[in-house]
Amino acid sequence: MVSRILAALLVGLTCAVTLPRLAFADGILFPTPRPLGTGGAMRAVATGDAGPQLNPSGISLLRSYLLEGSYQYGSSIGSHDARISAVDSTSGFNIGGALYYTYHRDSPSDGVNETGHLFGGSLSFPLLEKIFLGGSAKYVRFTDVAGTTHTGFTFDAGLTVRPIPQLSVGAVGYNLLDRETPWAPRAVGGGIAVLPSPTLLFVFDSVMEKVYGDSTRDKVMYYMGGGEISFAASFAVRAGGGHDGMSGNTYVSAGVSTLSADIGALDIGFRQDVSGQKKATIVGISARIFVPSM
User: Which of 33, 65, 90, 103 is most exposed, with minimal Cβ within 10 Å?
Assistant: First the structure.
């Protein structure tokens, strides 16, 4: 499994580094388009690349092997985020693994550009098909507004419990080895997912994040939720919203996917602030390729 993931990621990385300055931001605020469409909430059903980003224990919830590339733009600070990943949960014991690379660039109109790189790997495994454990190890390299480069390792740890097929509960800790930077913030989160039918999903999450560089507050809370409905396994629609603890803004979100069981999927996500003094817009797009298991 590891050799297959490495080979796939190296191919994707070779393609990615030939692109102009694209970028990434870690999954607490800027998840890839699928969870972005549900307000950022999928920590209880974090399958595919949502696993390494939101809750690594979710990788083993679904048996699949896929490659994914995504891009996202945020208007508030001119952020550009790009990500490539390879996620495989097709092993005989349903042990899941992922490797990924992300690149982030902030280009504010009235400030100094900041860039960052993140390399990571995740593992997940089930216990009695009801409890799923997972973790991610990450290497962060970023350059701040003063032009100083910072590097270091950190890690995430997650848990998903699925007592019945229609209910899933997740909990996760992010960047538990604190690098003292808002680019890799320490945080804890959790969520619940309800699946009334195979084509209908409701998700609700919350995240508590440490604040850096602001003496007036120590922690902030995020609340988010949404739903997804799929049609004939070929098309899906999402909608949601939430409250951004850092900005204090309330937002709405939406997303769509087109799927082919034999090829892959194209996902689009959108988030728009509807309250607050400085409203932000976030738009993301990703492509998933389904790789046949061997």
Answer: 90
- The two tokens of residue 145 are 């507004």
Partners of residue 213 on adjacent β-strands? none
Specify the CATH number for the domain of residue 66. 2.40.160.40
Residue 269 CA: distances (Å) to CA of 31, 60, 211, 254:
10, 24, 26, 6
Query: Is the pLDDT score of 150 beyond 60?
Result: yes
Write out the residue range of the structural domain in which residue 13 sits.
2-290
Is the pLDDT higher at 55 or at 106?
55
Residue 287 Cα to chain centre, angstroms: 14
Question: What pairing do the DSSP bridges indicate for beta strands 149-164 and 235-243?
Answer: unpaired
Using 50, 70 and 90 to split pLDDT, how confident is the model at 153?
Answer: very high
| 190, HSE (Cβ side, Cα atoms, 13 Å) | 8
| Total tally of structural domains belonging to the chain | 1
Task: Tell me how far apart the alpha carbons of residues 96 and 44 are, in angstroms, rounded to a whole number.
Answer: 16
Segments in the chain forming alpha helices (H):
2-16, 33-37, 50-54
DSSP for residue 77 = T
Strands (E), the chain: 65-74, 79-88, 96-106, 114-127, 131-143, 149-164, 167-174, 187-197, 200-210, 219-231, 235-243, 250-260, 264-273, 281-290
CA distance 137 to 155: 4
Highest mean pLDDT among 24-28, 90-94, 162-166: 162-166
